[in-house]
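Known limitations

Structure tokens in this collection are predictions and should be treated as such. Users comparing against experimental data should check residue numbering before alignment. To illustrate the layout, the record for GTR9 protein is reproduced below. The input appears on top and the generated tokens appear beneath it.
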Amino acid sequence: LWNVLLSFSGLVALIQLLFLPFFPESPPYLLLQKEDKAGCLKAMKQLWGEENYHTEFDDLMKEKAITKGTKIMNVVELLRERSVYPQLCTMLLLVLSLQLCGLSATANLQESIIPYVSLGVSISELISIIFCSSIIDRFGRRMLLCGGYLLMALILALLETSLLLSDRFPWLRYCSVILIFLFIIAYGIGP
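Generated tokens:
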């Protein structure tokens, strides 16, 4: 029943996708990056209620005052900044550990091809990190989450179909590998 187990993550992503539009945008994002004070207050009221958001808002205003004049770095600038190397190394270790999750094994490929699939998984993760970090400021977290979950649900449906038909059409195994790469990219960009 591995295919049911694989489909379960798609079901969870679909449920999250359906409920995500009903949640407000992140208050720190609205205030610090979009400079939308009214939107920030509205989101905080919705998240914490009428009376409980004032302390959080004051903290955000202090953070805004501290970070005033600080430039948001792009990917290249971030890689040049030595002070973030420990965090980058930790993130890379976490991302590279995705190779051990067994997602590549679902494609039912020949053993000689599996190292190339693992390499493709790593490249897909790297692409998603670079792509996400360069577009998150432009589109916002909510858009990336919605789009990522929608893509993941679609890719998992296609992956399930290709895996079910791979015994009759052996070339679909390679399509499954491509879908796995796309799933990892969609996951990295969104959730």
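For this record: Residues 21 and 171 are 38 Å apart (CA to CA). The longest helix spans residues 114-139. Please report discrepancies through the issue tracker.
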